[in-house]
Specification:
Elements: H1 2-12, E1 22-27, H2 32-46, E2 50-57, H3 68-85, E3 90-96, H4 104-118, E4 122-126, H5 136-151, E5 171-175, E6 182-185, H6 190-198, H7 206-227, E7 232-238
């Protein structure tokens, strides 16, 4: 089995995350990208890569006792500050209701519009197939983003503007994944990740922050050992051709 999968890996030639120049990070909520991949994001921007954040929801269900409008404003401001710490200046908000009702099909179309405009060579997003993941925003975002990656050049799925020039998306890197196949060394940006996470004060109290710190330190060291560094973040990297009738995705 291992030899079989290794042969398939050779022909796929999955790109390295650090080699990508233009990255679109699609997130269900403000904070998801910072918590899951903040050190990698900071590393990419420090290397001169272009990173854009795209938020599916407004985060308005994240503070008990406050109205949706006030909550959304607080969380957006927190995210702007956190993103700056990671070197991200471009933030796009689709403003769907946090934990609310919206169509995966419509969301796919919205993401396709952004992809066609920005033409990223790498898309980062949440893994919708994380075992025991029940948050509908995470599941919907991951599925809609993967579908967008599959159909972004297809004029049948969504009409293409006459000025659109089709291009080749290189890969998707799924974060919050249980099946990582690529690890990014983030020794130099590890502390920056936690500085960004701490900006989300409406979501993470001091006790929760301590828990996050311990959890991610353990996880980061475990992943780091795999590639010979102190800390690493893990991702499931796939190419769009693998998003339809490809039986080996779990093992790649």
């Amino acid at each position: 089995m291992e030899e079989y999968i290794n042969e398939i890996r050779k022909i796929l030639q999955l790109p390295k995350i650090e080699d990508c120049q233009n990255v679109l990070c699609v997130q269900p909520h403000p904070d998801d990208g910072d918590i899951s991949s903040g050190a990698t994001i900071a590393k990419l921007t420090s290397l001169g890569k272009k990173v854009t954040y795209l938020f599916v929801t407004d985060g308005s269900a994240g503070i008990n006792g406050k109205s949706r409008s006030k909550t959304a404003k607080i969380r957006k401001n927190e995210e702007i500050n956190a993103a700056k710490m990671l070197g991200v200046r471009d933030l796009i908000w689709l403003d769907h209701p946090d934990a609310g009702e919206y169509s995966v099909s419509n969301l796919k179309s919205e993401i396709i519009e952004v992809v066609r405009k920005l033409k990223p060579d790498l898309i980062m997003t949440v893994d919708p197939f994380l075992p025991y993941e029940f948050h509908p925003d995470h599941i919907s975002t991951g599925i809609a983003t993967a579908q967008a990656a599959l159909f972004y050049n297809n004029s049948i799925v969504k009409a293409v503007d006459k000025d659109y020039d089709p291009y080749a998306l290189r890969a998707i890197a799924f974060f919050f994944t249980a099946f990582p196949n690529q690890f990014v060394c983030v020794d130099d940006q590890w502390e920056t990740k936690f500085q960004a996470i701490f900006e989300h004060k409406s979501q993470i109290n001091p006790e929760t922050f301590k828990l996050y710190r311990k959890y991610f330190d353990i996880k980061g060291k475990f992943y780091g050992e795999k590639i010979g560094c102190k800390y690493a973040e893990g991702f499931k990297v796939l190419i769009p051709e693998m998003f339809h009738a490809f039986a080996e995705n779990l093992w790649i």
